[in-house]
Amino acid sequence: MKTIKGPGIFLAQFMGDAAPFNSLKTICEWAASIGFKGVQIPSWDARLIDLQKAAESKTYAEEIKGIVQEAGLEITELSTHLQGQLVAVNPAFTEMFDGFAPAQYHGNIQARTAWATDQLKYAAKASRHMGLTAHATFSGALLWAPAMYPWPQRPAGLVEAGFAELAKRWLPILQEFDANGVDLCYEIHPGEDLHDGASYERFLEATGNHNRACLLYDPSHLVLQCLDYLQYIDIYHERIKAFHVKDAEFNPTGRSGVYGGFQSWIDRPGRFRSLGDGQVDFKSIFSKLTQYDFSGWAVMEWECCMKHPEDGAREGAPFIKDHIIRVTEKAFDDFAGAATDESFNKRILGI
To answer: Angle at CA 153, nearest 5°, toward 151 and 158?
Structure first.
């Protein structure tokens, strides 16, 4: 077994216009000062990284890595959540997602998709240049808007066609990640076509069970869907290559449940919470991931509808540190063991 690495922090929710949150150097120094050991870098934020340059120049990629290391940290993974979303967008959402791409691609779905695909391919090369072995992203969604709930009745073959198209768009990207020796980890998330285990299995089948089509495990999104997030690890542990430590709670009422009634986050039955403030059983999660030899990073993704982000970060580092299990190098009952050999074992068995 291996000891999980951490604590790490996903920087996306902490970037801002004021110091220390407005540059890679200063935000890394801040993260280190409150106990983090690694950072997951959102690749769409130019204040942190030029993704294309990191793909095309190993020297530049090593410079970015060096800035992080000077703060006493490591890069856990790069993230392309926003670009991954744009690999597949249903027309119902196209204007709402335009903001994820540069202005010159707004209103041009085909050009925007091509840009997003190139971004993912850059991420594969940049990850290799930085010595990373996993990458975090979203799958995008063609089916979520019109087919998430089967009313009106879905036309025969609609779901199959949707996943076939999704796989067609992702296969060249997966091949690029494979060529660079990096696992592509889809965050299972409502709003994506890969939003639970069943939908992930459909996608996996459509890609021919591609060896790089892996998972980012985030229990918060499973809690809000009422999934068994512990059994999920039992089922998919061989594909889990990245881990977001994020808390959540689900408190249904007589007025509202999983779908949330179009309410704001503060009023929804399902809410994201700061670490330790929700309902997620992290002791069991860390135990299962350790049992299954997960050797990646435990990365805090902070989202909470109440608590200040800086408080959530300050509390999050020790929370993760306290949950990481340092694996043992010997069995607990070794003290009672006895030297054995083949003949001794045969005598015990009477053979």
So the answer is: 115
Residues in the chain: 351
- Would you give per-residue pLDDT tens digits along the chain (351 residues)? 899 999 999 999 999 999 999 999 999 999 999 999 999 999 999 999 999 999 999 999 999 999 999 999 999 999 999 999 999 999 999 999 999 999 999 999 999 999 999 999 999 999 999 999 999 999 999 999 999 999 999 999 999 999 999 999 999 999 999 999 999 999 999 999 999 999 999 999 999 999 999 999 999 999 999 999 999 999 999 999 999 999 999 999 999 999 999 999 999 999 999 999 999 999 999 999 999 999 999 999 999 999 999 999 999 999 999 999 999 887 766 666 767 788 888 888 999
Task: Give dist(CA 121, CA 135) in Å, integer.
Answer: 11
Contact by Cβ (8 Å): 57, 66: no
The CA distance from 115 to 40, in Å, is: 22
Place of tokens 């015990």: 348
Partner residues linked to 299 by β-bridges: 8, 244
**Concatenated DSSP letters for 182-235?**
-EEEEEP-TTSS--SHHHHHHHHHHTTS-TTEEEEE-HHHHHTTT--HHHHHHH
Q: Rounded CA gap, 67 and 224, in Å?
A: 37
Q: How far apart are CA 92 and CA 90, in angstroms?
A: 5
> How many angstroms separate the CA atoms of 305 and 316, rounded?
16
Peptide bond into 20 cis (omega under 30): yes
Secondary structure of the chain: what % helix, strand, coil (to 5)?
Answer: 45, 15, 40
The whole-angstrom separation of Cα 4 and Cα 295 is: 5
Report which residue type is found at 117: T
